[in-house]
Design a protein that fits this description.
mainly alpha; 16 helices
């Protein structure tokens, strides 16, 4: 055998030129491996859709922030102080000038709305409403500003707000809410038609006639949880058959905070003929807000007429029991030094009395 054959026959060590050592077993975890080198796992991608669309949830959240803020107590304002008298005097001069420009100097409705908006950013609505609303109505009893109020309302709320911002505390949002409340003052001014066809009439900048059924318009706003608190107040202030019908119609369509406001508005009319309807549908579409509906229903409606009447409709009896149970549950979580009535959620009617 040649020398070259002997070299080929020699075994080759798998560890190269390293010295011999004791054998060992190396265990590798999947987590020790480079993610890029890990074997790809086959998994099905699942798209999770939110139960409620993001715009809807954001809108409901805004409604919640505003409703809770409106139920806070604000210090009362004294309009007889020298500072307040001076402030109102200046405001009267500015609003009167704007009204004169609109009526006699052919100023556009859009420009009038633009000038009024910053003037309405005067302070929190629950604190200022009792002073500002009668003050503005005294200046515009003829309803000249109604088209301007409608224009301000149609501008909507700012769209670039942070999630936790109350739109009612922005300049544009505050002006919009004051405008909705102002519509509650105009029941018989500037209307055309008879009976059910009665509605407000005004003119555009070009002189063409436009008309708006204020009651129907407020009824549509009553289903919007962002402004339902103000629209229902204006409908209650109208105190007409048409405004009652508008609220009853809104009762079927309203959800969430809007339903809370509509129920409270219907109760303000103190019409016993509404009781069956309110007991039957008042607790619908108010998920998470049941206590805010049960409280005013419990205060206003004698539930014993359903609970103790053997001939009462079973559905109404069951709903009456649900209302009573919810009101009782809320009172059980109250401090011991308060009565059950004091512990029920504060109604927005206490914020916006007639």
């Amino acid at each position: 055998m040649s020398e070259s054959d002997n070299e080929q026959a020699q075994p080759v060590s798998p560890w190269g030129n390293e010295t011999e050592s004791e054998g060992f077993l190396y265990l590798e975890k999947d987590s020790d491996r480079n993610p890029a080198e890990a074997a790809p796992s086959v998994s099905e991608q699942i798209d999770v859709e939110p139960a409620t669309s993001l715009p809807t949830r954001a809108r409901e959240r805004a409604g919640t922030i505003e409703h809770i803020a409106a139920r806070k107590a604000f210090p009362a304002l004294d309009k007889n102080t020298p500072e307040m008298k001076q402030r109102l005097s200046t405001l009267r001069t500015e609003v009167t000038h704007i009204l004169t420009s609109l009526r006699w100097e052919n100023q556009s409705i859009e420009e009038t709305a633009h000038q009024l908006t910053p003037l309405l950013n005067i302070g929190p609505i629950p604190q200022w409403k009792d002073i500002l609303l009668p003050f503005l109505y005294e200046i515009d009893r003829g309803g000249i500003l109604i088209p301007t109020w409608l224009t301000i309302i149609e501008q909507g709320d700012p769209t670039d707000l942070a999630p936790d911002t109350n739109p009612g505390e922005t300049e544009q949002g505050r002006a919009r809410r004051y405008a909705i409340l102002m519509l509650g003052n105009y029941r018989t001014m500037g209307i055309i038609g008879n009976g059910a066809q009665t509605h407000f009439a005004s003119r555009k900048d070009d002189g063409s006639l436009i008309s708006t059924d204020l009651t129907q318009y407020l009824g549509s706003l009553a289903t919007d949880p962002d402004v339902s608190m103000y629209a229902t107040h204006s409908l209650v202030k109208h105190a007409t058959v048409a405004s009652m019908q508008a609220l009853i119609s809104a009762l079927k369509e309203a959800h969430g905070w809007a339903k809370v406001d509509v129920v409270e508005g219907c109760l303000e009319f103190q019409q016993e003929r509404f009781y069956d309807l309110l007991v039957a549908s008042g607790m619908e579409n108010v998920s998470g807000l049941e206590n805010y509906v049960a409280a005013p229903l419990y205060r206003a409606i004698p539930l014993e007429r359903y609970l103790e009447n053997k001939q009462a409709d079973p559905y109404l009896k069951a709903n009456a029991a649900l209302i009573f149970q919810q009101a009782l549950a809320d009172s059980n979580h109250a401090p011991l030094n308060q009565t059950a009535t004091e512990t029920l959620p504060r109604s927005s009617r206490a914020i916006f009395p007639r």
